[in-house]
Design a protein that fits this description.
The chain is of the alpha/beta class. 41% of the residues lie in helices and 18% in strands. The strands form four sheets. Strands 3-2-1-4-5-6-11 form a seven-stranded parallel beta sheet, with helices on both faces. It has a three-stranded mixed beta sheet with strand order 12-9-14. The N and C termini lie far apart (40 Å). Bound molecules: nicotinamide-adenine-dinucleotide (NAD) and UDP-4-deoxy-4-formamido-beta-L-arabinopyranose. UDP-4-deoxy-4-formamido-beta-L-arabinopyranose (WQD) binds next to helix 7 and strand 8. The site of nicotinamide-adenine-dinucleotide (NAD) has 26 residues, from helix 1, helix 5 and strand 5.
């Protein structure tokens, strides 16, 4: 009997890739999503890859009745909790929307998990839980500190899960993602940001397909290889494999525990290097203009990923260039 895993927020970017990976690796999945930042088109993409559609519930994690019914009517072995709003900038302007959706919503969901006797969870955390005053590469024991509602929601839920492990014998892993980038090699699923992309790679790709005129580079006076911001870009397919390793670990642990684990490549790529990667993949000219720094940005952020290797026997396999090539294919398939 294949273990059944519920993927909350599983319909869109990281969840859809994780769904495919789990289904292809001996698990069954069910997706729960309120479609606040996604559409059913993702199910079409998943079906084109798998040859069938996983069960999908159009539901909100804040809807106690719906959540209770879903948890009681399926024999779930565990949960991967993706559901949440994810824009740092938006959370600065709309903190209460993030507190309500991400924190209050997760409280309702966790309580119904406990009532249903489901105590195995992998949680989508983020590198934004680290304070700005750390040395690099970032280790899991680095100083934690948040300056926006989004990051605060992630750190709060990590502490709540620690408490549930101690008090209610849950098993939990929080995966602290760095910068996920596109897309499934088939080109059928990937990130489709609504409106103007917040993140770097989708914006560069929009320039490559002619949807936008140029890339605005936020600062070239940082202490980095070429003065532009450096980040740890993790291919979403590697990220999906990390969730497979984490849910397997959580289900096979014989003692209750909580672990927060960095999921990154351990390497940094600058903005100008990313622009060059897209130029090589697309064979298109990518115009850009240097602007002043974006408020709140750090010069460099990249992971020490040794804990993922030791605990999950996972490490990133795919290069940034391979990820960019898949992203370009996805964009060309979905113009
Ligand atoms: P996404 O927006 O593509 O997917 C999140 C999904 O959750 C969406 O389909 C949305 O409709 C759903 N959702 C939101 N609120 C919900 C609610 N109340 N009830 C049910 N469904 C709800 O985001 P993603 O990039 O796939 O990220 C998944 C998770 O990983 C998020 O929690 C995000 O904060 C986290 N994360 C993302 C990144 C990144 O750069 N993409 C980095 C670190 C952490
Ligand atoms: C990357 C680099 C920018 C856009 C964000 C969230 C974080 C996480 C991952 C959820 C920086 C530069 C960007 C542009 C640019 N998501 N840039 N021009 O800010 O590292 O992290 O996504 O957890 O929470 O904050 O990613 O892609 O916005 O920026 O020059 O048009 O690209 O200054 O150096 P970031 P990003």
């Amino acid at each position: 009997m294949k273990p059944l895993i519920l993927l909350t927020g599983g319909l869109w970017y990281i969840g859809s890739h994780t769904c495919v990976t789990l289904e292809q690796s001996g698990f069954k999945t069910i997706l729960l999503d309120n479609l606040s930042n996604s559409s059913l088109s993702s199910l079409d993409g998943i079906e084109r890859i798998l040859g069938y559609r996983p069960v999908f519930y159009d539901a909100d994690i804040r809807d106690r009745g719906a959540v209770a019914s879903i948890l009681k009517s399926n024999d779930f072995s565990g949960v991967i909790h993706f559901a949440g709003l994810k824009s740092v900038g938006e959370s600065v302007n709309e903190p209460f929307e993030y507190y309500n959706n991400n924190i209050q919503g997760s409280f309702v969901f966790f309580e119904e998990m406990e009532r249903a006797g489901i105590r195995n969870i992998v949680f989508s955390s983020s590198a934004t839980v680290y304070s700005a005053d750390n040395t690099l590469p970032l280790i899991e024991e680095a100083e934690l500190g948040t300056t926006n509602a989004y990051a605060t929601s992630k750190l709060t839920l990590e502490f709540v899960l620690r408490n549930l492990v101690a008090a209610k014998k849950w098993n939990a892993i929080a995966l602290r993602y760095f910068n996920p980038i596109w897309a499934h090699p088939s080109g059928y699923i990937g990130e489709r940001p609504n409106g103007v992309p917040n993140n770097l790679l989708p914006y560069i790709l929009d320039v490559a397909i002619g949807k936008r005129d140029k890339v605005w580079v936020y600062g070239d006076d940082y202490d980095t290889v070429d003065g532009t911001g450096v980040r740890d870009y993790i291919d979403v397919n590697d990220l999906a494999e990390a969730h497979l390793a984490a849910i397997h670990k959580v289900l096979t642990w014989d003692t209750q525990s909580f672990h927060a684990i960095n999921i990154g490549t351990g390497n940094g790529t600058s903005v100008l290097e990313m622009i060059e990667n897209v130029r090589l993949a697309s064979k298109k000219d990518i115009p850009y203009t240097i602007l002043s720094r974006r408020p709140g940005d750090l010069a460099s952020v990249y992971a020490d990923s040794s804990c993922a290797r030791e605990l999950l026997w996972w490490e990133a396999k795919r290069s940034v260039q391979q990820a960019v090539e898949d992203s370009w294919r996805f964009v060309c398939n979905n113009i």
